[in-house]
Each structure stands twice: as structure tokens, then as C-alpha cells.
Amino acid sequence: MTKRFPSQPDELLRRWGTQVVPVDTAERAEQRRAQVVDALSRSIRQNAERKLQVSRVRRLAGLGLAASIALGLGIAWHTKSRVQEAGQVATTVAELQGAVVVSEAGQSRVLSHGSSLTLHAVGEIETAADAQAEIHSPKSLVHLGPATKLTVPQSTRVEERYRLALGRVDVSVDKDSKITRSVVVETPNAEVVVHGTVFAVGVSPRAEHTVTEVSVSRGSVWVLANGVQVAVLGPGQRWSSENQPALAPPASPTAVPLPQPETSAAPVESAVRPPRREPSPAEVKASALAEQGHMFQDAIDARNRGDDPRAVDLFTRLVARYPNYEEAEVQLFRAQKRLGQTAAAAAVARRYLAQHPQGFAHEEARSLALSAAAQQPR
């Protein structure tokens, strides 16, 4: 007969209640305890290993981040150093055609065909009537035409200056260069100041004076005559000093006549002198311009020698005597800044901004004035 299983839950519960629960032996209990302890040990060990692995990953990630930051700082420092070093690289003169004479530190040499020379001090370059040369710097490229005489002072952090005595130069300034110094071409009649452009400057002799001519191909330039901005030129525009007042030599003091022994033979008419003529306004102006030019040149020479204290003294006198001399004010606060006279330089910069709101050194003066104001204690 087939055994019949109860179908009601109550019957099942009743039967389970009457059954005897088997009791494990001591050996079986110990075996189970060992299995539980082993499982717990494995779990604890795995958790510890997982935490250690996570800690190592985090440590490696931190080291990687620190290395990336250090590498980035190193690259930035290296790039900045390269830019600063590029700003201090000496100028190189290259011969393109004909006889090119380079004078430096009292020694002169003629560049052979296709050769070049690096200048380490103030240099003077002269090209023959059929010669041409180029001057390379990290900021500009200067092409010297035939029969040209150009002086190349050492560049500073804020300025790259060329002195054109005669002939023609074509200047191309790298407007994308990270070097922020200005490029200045100085002539007997004017100064041409640029930051990034292509232009040409020529100096040609006349009967009793020289004439400076400036033409711009790209960008814009400021033209200063006797320290005062006289023109701002754009592409295709020209300027000539022909219409500017020529510099006259400063009037020499009237010589005091020495006492002469009395002679009866001397006619009375010889002692009679015509009245001294008063100088005309044009002569007075020309004499003042000549004095400005001489004082400015003395100060620039002191700056080029590295004698900034002397330059500050001379530029201060010049600005005191001629308060509207724009270029002298710029050179004054630059020299003061190099000497660490920040407060005095900022004061001159603020005065410059007030007198020349659209001056060629507007941004430089504004930056100096703001930086000095930020350093003042509050």
C-alpha cells in the first residue's frame, strides 16, 4: 500500500514537533567551528588586502599627480627661462653683400662674404656704397642698406635701441614675440618707437643738416622729435623731419674783452660797438631744442654705460627744466625702477600718464603705477 503524505499544514507541523532533533557529536561541532573560523580568517585577510591595494592605488595616483604638477612647473620655468634668456641674447650682425665693417670695444673687422659676428658690447656697423647687412635679435630684424652707419647699444629688458647716423634701415619687429621690450630707432632728428610692426627709417644729408624720413608698411609707430610725440603713423603713411625746426647749436656766452693798454694811436671809432641784437623767437626755440638734445644725449650715454644713478640725475634735471619732455620722463622712471626706487618711479609714471594719456609708454607707465600701489601697506 502506497504511503500517503498529509496535505494539511497542521499535520506536518504536528509530526515535526514529535521528531527528535539529532545532536552533533563533539568532533562534528569542532569541525564546523574550524570551518567558520577559517572562513572568517579568509574574509578578514581579503578585506585587509583589498584596503592595502586601494591605499597603494591612491598613493600611486597622488605621486602621479605630484609628478605631473612638478613636470608642469618645470616646463613653465624652463619656458620662462628660455624666453628670458632669449631676451638677453646678444645681437648678431650678418654680411649680405659687399664690405661691412663692424667696430666693437675699440677693434674693427671687415666681415667676409656670408659671415656673421655676435656683438657683446656697443657696436658700430658701416656698410659700403654697394654693401648690405642684417642685424638679428630675438625681437627684431634690421636690414642695413648701402652707405649706412648704425650704432647698436646693448639691449635692456625694456628697450632695444638702434642709433642711425646715416643711410637707411628696414626694421621688422616680431609682433608675436613673448619679449615685451620696445624697439627704438634713434636719428639726429627723431626717435621712432614701436612694439610690433614693419617700417623703414632713412637719414640723408642736406646742405647744413640731416633729414629723417619714416615710412610704415605694417602696424603703427610713434615718432618723437626732441622728446615730444609729433606723429603716429599707420600702414602706408610717411613722416619727414624736413618740416620740423632744425636744431641749432647752443648760443655761446658773450666773450668778455680783456683790458687793452691805452694807445693814443687807436681811433675813437674802434671803441664804438654796435648794440647787441636780441635773438628772435625762432632762434630762442632752436637754442632750447639744442639744449634738450644735448642733455638727453648725455643722459642716454650714462644709461648705456650702466650708470643708472647718473642717468637718473640727468633725466631728473632734464624733466625739471622741460616738463613736457615725454621720452625723458619714460627713461627716468625706467632708470628709477632698475635702481629699485619703486615709489619714485611710480610717481613719475603717474605724472607721465596725466600729461600724456595716449603716450607711447602708456601701458608700461600704467603697469608700474598699479604695481606700486598694490605693494603699499593698507
On the 0 to 100 scale, the average pLDDT is 75
**What's the story with the biggest beta sheet?**
16 strands, mixed
Specify the structural class. Answer: alpha+beta
Flag low-confidence runs.
80-89, 245-271
Morphology: elongated
DSSP strand count = 16
Q: What is the annotated CATH architecture of the largest domain?
A: Sandwich
Proportion of residues in β-strands: 15-25%
Termini separation comes to 110 Å
Number of helices: 7
Instruction: Give the C-level CATH assignment of the largest domain.
Output: Mainly Beta
Order of helices and strands: HHEEEEEEEEEEEEEEEEHHHHH
Characterization of this structure:
The chain is α+β, with helices and mostly antiparallel strands and 378 residues long. The chain has three domains: 39-69; 90-243, Jelly Rolls, CATH 2.60.120; 282-375, Tetratricopeptide repeat domain (Serine Threonine Protein Phosphatase 5, Tetratricopeptide repeat, Alpha Horseshoe). Helix content is 40%, strand content 25%. It has a 16-stranded mixed sheet that branches. Helix 3 runs antiparallel to helix 4 and helix 5 (326-338) runs antiparallel to helix 6. The longest helix has 63 residues, at 26-88. It is elongated. Mean pLDDT is 75; it is low at 80-89 and 245-271.
